[in-house]
Amino acid sequence: MDDGYEYRIVVDTDLRGFRSGPGETVPTEVARAPRTDDALQRETVRVLRLWLDRWPAIRQQKKLPVPDTFKLLGSYLYRTVFREAVETKFREVREEAERDDLTLRVDLALGPGAGELAEWPWELLYSPDWGGEFLAKASGLVLSRSLNQTRFPNRHQDPPLRVYCIIAVPDTPAYAAQREELTEALTGMTEYSRTIQPEITERWNQKTVQQRLRTAPHPHIIHFVGVCRRRWEGGVLNLQICLDDGSGGHEWASTTALVDLLASGGTPRGENRARLAVLHLSEPSPLDFDVTFERLAPALIQRGIPAVLAMQYPLTGEPAARFIRLLYEKIAEHKSIEEAVQCARGELFVDLQDDLAFGSPVLYMQSLDSQLLPGADAVPGTAGAGPGGVVTTLLPAGSLRDALLAALTVLPESPVTAGVRLEVERNTWPDSAVGVGQLLARRIRESVSRPDELVVYEELARVVSEWERGGGLLAG
């Protein structure tokens, strides 16, 4: 990994740890340990997974029972792969990354000998170190999976990134609210119109989708939203997705059709192949406890898609909208796929600590790096690229920050102004004017029902707007 550290744990019949540092492209094996998961541990994890599969129903209850189940399951997962020298070397490389203020990429490479471990929810890994934390939302660390096979270089794309969104959720009253929320969230990508260009297809039609994927300009990201179920057929457990039947109704079809279409039936090969496939699992109605898109990710990786982000639990409502906004917001800021996913997971955890939402996104990476757009430091003036693709320079010290603090002193004192003032004083806000404006735009959207917050964020957005119009000199 040329811009940070990587620690790769190969999970096969044994455990092996590989590390690489800045400027190193070939990882070095540094640790090996035996697998010690036994029948009791695997059965415990199986039972806990069955409990979590029922989370959509549990979420609807007024009281969430035993929320520490996430930590319990996550601790079992951690003990399974972080063992002996593999854990020791992980701690060492993480300390090095923190000391050098660089990102650590943790990759779980699942080999053919991993068996049922390949289906475990590794995004709930809970480390007892650093005061106890879920690795999927840890600061300075990005967590992904891969298959234990060759990884390939990734070509960065010049903006705009084209995102082809397919909403295959049934167009029925039972799904009306979900369709509306998802369409609104995906349409919100137009805030980054010069950096990200969304194209939304609100109904599934295989011929239409296939034709679009074969037509230039080809999409860089395919975002599929659908409903999935598992069914026994001929003694085999198969996944099915709900698709339009062509006459206004819907039918259940094998997921093989979707995999074939995304991997070979529609998408071109080589430079024009999609760089990221997002499989967004919507909540079935009525509730089905055996739904997941996670199993489709390895199939797409094996068919040549470099990166697949799949939901292992349904993600709907406000959590889904927030995840979509944050994912594409960070990609538009020239963050890597892994950084964007990790940030979105972290935000979901902060807002919904007793919910499973943060552990739903599963990222499989088979490329050596996950940068879609060139890194912000590689393109002069793009560090602050945000809504509309506006390019700004980084804020001079004591400039917009001082203007924001001055505006906060004029506003009536309240818990909101006090909290925002503390954030600005501690420099926890973005370091570009557009980045600050982007943050405020999101908070304005989220506080429309809270007038005391709305007035603060709208005033600060006005300050930022005047600052940019004045070329960095605030009028008055």
Explained architecture:
With 476 residues, this protein is an alpha/beta fold. It folds into 3 domains: 5-147; 161-365, Rossmann fold, CATH 3.40.50; 392-469, no CATH class. Helices cover 37% and strands 20% of the residues. It has 14 helices and 16 strands. It has helices spanning 39-53, 55-59, 69-81, 84-99, 176-187, 206-214, 255-265, 296-302, 317-332, 337-351, 400-410, 415-425, 433-446, 451-469, and strands spanning 5-11, 14-20, 28-34, 104-110, 126-127, 133-134, 141-147, 161-167, 196-201, 221-226, 228-233, 236-244, 250-254, 276-281, 307-311, 361-365. A 6-stranded mixed sheet has the order 9-8-10-14-15-16, with helices on both faces. A hairpin with a 5-residue loop joins strand 12 and strand 13 (250-254). Helix 1 (39-53) packs antiparallel against helix 3, helix 5 runs parallel beside helix 9 and helix 11 (400-410) packs antiparallel against helix 14 (451-469). The longest helix is centred in the C-terminal third of the chain and has 19 residues, at 451-469. It is globular, with a radius of gyration of 23 Å. 42% of the residues are buried. Residues 378-398 have low confidence and may be disordered. Pfam families: CHAT. This is CHAT domain-containing protein. Residues 74-226, 295-353 form the CHAT domain. It comes from Geodermatophilus siccatus.
